[in-house]
Structure formats: C-alpha cells, structure tokens
Design brief:
The structure holds 2 protein chains of 2 kinds. Chain A is α+β, with helices and mostly antiparallel strands. Chain A is built from 10 helices and 8 strands. Chain B has 8 helices and no strands. The chains are: A alpha+beta, B mainly alpha.
Chain lengths: 285, 191
C-alpha cells in the first residue's frame, strides 16, 4: 500500500472499521511511514480534545416550551371542539354523563380568579397560534393572511389622520410613508394582547409589508417560541424572526412598539427605523 | 500503531424503553407519552445540537427537533430503528438552522471569538479552540464528526442517519478531521 491509499483509509483504520486484511496492510504501512503515522497521531489528539468537551445540561424550559407549542398546535387543529360520534373518547354512557354533570357543578365552585387566569392564558395561547398562522401565510399571500387576522378579531378600517379620535394617538403612518411605499389600508384591531393599529404598505413592485403599532410591553407572544435573535438595527434593539423568505421585526419606538411583518431583510428594517427616527413624530417620542 | 477500538454507540441510553406501545401513544398525541419520550431522548439530542449549532441556539433547535418528531411520527416506519430516525431529524434540523443562520449575514453568533488571554488550563484552551474550529468547517463535515466523535456512532449508523453510502463515511471523516486540524493550526493550536 502506498501513502495515497492509506490516507484514504486512515479514518476507517483509526475508527476500527476496516476488515482484518485491510487493517493489517494499513498497519504495516504506518509502521514504516512517518508521514501517515504523524497524521494518525493528529487524529488521536483530535479525539482526546473532543472527548473532554463539556456537556451542558438541557434546561427544564425546553419541555415547557414544547408543551406550550403542542397546546397551540392542538388549538389550531381543533379550533372549535365538536363531538365526534366516531370517537370513542367522546362517546359517553348515561352514568358517565351523570359524573360529568357532577364534575361541571363542582367546577362552578372554582374561584373567579382561577377562571380569569385560565381564560387570559387561554386567550394568549390562542392569539399566539393565530398570529403564527398569520405570519406563515403572509409570506405566500399577504391578502389571505390579512383575512385571517380580520376574521378573528374585532377591527375597523380607519383614516390614519383621524385615528387619534379612536385610539388616542396619531399612528406613525399618518404622516406618510417612505417614497417606495404606498399605504393600502389601516385598521384598528382589537387583539387579546392589545389594541393595535395595523397598516398594509405596498412596495413599488407590488409586494406588501404590514406595520403594527401597539402598546403591549412585550412581543414574545406575537412570535411564540419561534427562534429569534436580538440585534441592534440603527439605534433600536430589535427582535428578528426569520420567516420563509422574509423576516418579522419588533422594537420599542418611543412609548410604543412597532412590529413589521413581511420585511425583506435587515436593511429594510434599518430603513424603516431611520425613517421613523427622522420623522421624529411627537407621539412616538 | 494500533487503530482505535470501535467505541460503543452512545445512542439513546434508555432506548430499550422506547417500544412500539410508547410510539403508538405518541402518534395518538398523548401528552404524557410525548413527555416520556422526550425525557428518554432529549439529553442526546441536546448534546448533538450543542456541538452542531452552538450552545446559544441548542435549546431552541432541540425544541424544534421534538416538535418535528411529534408532527412527523406517523411517517416513522417501525421496521427501522427509532434512534436513527431521531438523529436524522436532529441533524436535518441542525443543518437547516446553520444554513438559515448564514443567510442572516451576521457574524456567527453561536461561538464567541477566542480571547487573547485565557487563564484557564491548556486543556480548556484546546477545548475552546476545537469549538471555534468546529464552527468554521462545512456543516455536513461538522455533523459527521460530531456523530462519530461526540455521539460515538458506528459508520453504519452514521450512513443511515446521513443517508449516504457507508463507504462515503470514512472519506468524509478524513476531510472533517483534516479540515479541523487545519483550522486548529490556523488558530495557533500546538498539539
């Protein structure tokens, strides 16, 4: 065997994956070749370092987040629970109905506080699922995505210049948009987390981007547990979430938050932030 | 010089507890069964993800792996080995994450740059260097190195996970090891 042949088999030799005859021939060559023997020693040193790499312990939080996500998926798959007569799990006999009635009566005794906590949590979980659906759809069909949101939550088409009468502040789009965008529509949408102003902006090429302006302190539930990164875009610390071929971005602008959906890239986030900063709109600062 | 003995596969340690019944209950979306399966497998998946995508993102990607697992469990064919299927899901998710991460066009956020002055021992120095070197090689080479050196899989198991011919595993490992050595040398590694 020559060096070239041995080099090709070196990992398999090192890992004990060669048949006996091949192993013996490689072994014989290595015994006489300092170059191949040296490379094998390099493999051994690499293994030694790899064997002492630290083993971080996974946090409990991972399962909690999976659990929450599974809840959301379950809500999406079964938005309204309907009894399925073919499903034996929902097929009750009379005694079971009696037990069920007793259980319901007992449940009535549960405190209002507990109910409210559950209700609020349930609403928020549901909102995360709806918004997740909206984000996914926006990438392919912004109009269909808009219908998902408008179909779920109470809303009103507004004139941004007169929005102050309805929402108490002048939305950022009221003073116009950067040159390459035109305003298609502005809605006030009453979502479980907050009442927001949402504007659909059309680019010159016909593609669309949504701008949400809202009061809630955190936008975590807007993006659920989608992977996100926190980076500075201009002077704002932004939470960025990658969608299929787009990104969504959210940051604090003055006393409110701005969330963009359908953004092309980080450069576009920078442009919007620059535009908002240059506007120095008093309501935002 | 003798070749290294084949290491024992560090496949899911409680694999014997993953039986058809448990998987069937997971297919029925029983949350208790899903949690139990997670308990049995998550340490291995997390360790693989720490080495593949970095500590910072390992939790998120592990989460994605298990969500994919529960979503696609109907596609698992019981005649194949569950652990192989799980590792394949994990590797695919890790590779997808790495490729997406590069599309952000940011510096690699998973690995901190090496500090000039490290008071730690030489061995820790080497560990840090290896972690930086791992972040610099091609994702596919990184995966195959991690499956072998960290997870301890055999060539046959790696071939099944990566869906490549068994004969290709050795040549890719050659490339992975040589590229890692080159990266380590560039980082000033003195073996």
């Amino acid at each position: 065997m020559n060096c070239s042949e041995v080099q090709e088999l070196l990992s398999a030799y090192y890992d004990g994956e060669l048949a006996d005859d091949q192993r013996d021939r490689v072994s014989a060559h290595i015994g006489t070749c300092t170059k191949c023997a040296g490379e094998l020693t390099g493999f051994e040193k690499l293994s030694r370092i790899a064997s002492v790499l630290s083993e971080p312990v996974p946090t409990q939080q991972i399962w909690s987040q999976i659990n929450q996500k599974l809840d959301e998926q379950s809500i999406c798959e079964n938005p309204i629970l309907k009894p399925d007569h073919n499903d034996r799990r929902l097929s009750f006999s009379v005694p079971k109905l009696f037990v069920l009635a007793a259980t319901i009566l007992t449940a009535v005794g549960i405190s209002w506080f507990t109910y409210q906590s559950w209700f609020t949590h349930g609403n928020h979980v549901h909102f995360t699922a709806v918004f997740s659906h909206y984000l996914d759809e926006f990438v392919h069909d912004p109009d269909a995505a808009q219908q998902i949101l408008l179909g779920k939550y109470e809303n009103k088409l507004i004139d941004p210049n007169r929005a102050v009468e309805q929402i108490g502040y002048r939305p950022s789009v009221a003073n116009g948009l950067p040159a390459e965008y035109t305003l298609e529509s502005t809605h006030v949408i009453k979502m479980p987390c907050c009442t927001c102003v949402q504007s659909i902006c059309k680019r010159n090429d016909g593609s669309k981007m949504a701008i949400f302006e809202h009061d809630d302190k955190e936008t975590k539930e807007w993006f659920g547990d989608r992977p996100n990164i926190s980076v500075y875009c201009k002077d704002k610390q932004c939470c960025l979430v990658e969608l299929d071929k787009q990104i969504a971005a959210s940051w604090k602008q003055g006393s409110r938050h701005i969330t963009l959906v359908g953004v092309r890239d980080v450069a576009e986030v920078n442009e919007i932030i620059s535009w908002l900063n240059e506007k120095k709109q008093p309501v935002l600062n | 010089m003798a070749s290294k003995n084949t290491t024992t596969s560090k496949y899911v340690s409680d694999a014997t507890e993953i039986d058809a019944g448990l998987l069937e209950r997971c297919r029925s979306k029983e949350r208790g069964a899903q949690q139990y399966l997670y308990e049995l497998c998550h340490r291995q998946v997390y360790r693989l993800m720490v080495r593949t995508v970095g500590l910072q993102d390992a939790g998120d990607v592990t989460q994605q792996v298990f969500l994919q697992l529960f979503r696609k469990i109907d596609q698992f064919e019981s005649q194949s080995k569950f652990e192989t299927w799980l590792y394949r899901l994990a590797i695919n998710e890790g590779l997808q994450h790495l490729r997406k991460g590069r599309r952000w066009n940011f510096q690699n956020l998973s690995h901190e740059p090496m500090s000039q002055h490290n008071p730690e021992s030489e061995r820790i120095d080497h560990k840090e260097l290896l972690e930086v070197a791992l972040s610099r090689i091609e994702p596919e080479l990184l995966s195959i190195f991690v499956l072998r050196e960290v997870q301890g899989l055999s060539y046959r198991e790696i071939a099944e996970v990566m869906e490549i011919p068994e004969g290709t595993v050795g040549s890719r490992l050659n490339r992975a090891r040589r590229e890692l050595q080159q990266q380590l040398a560039d980082l000033g590694w003195e073996p």
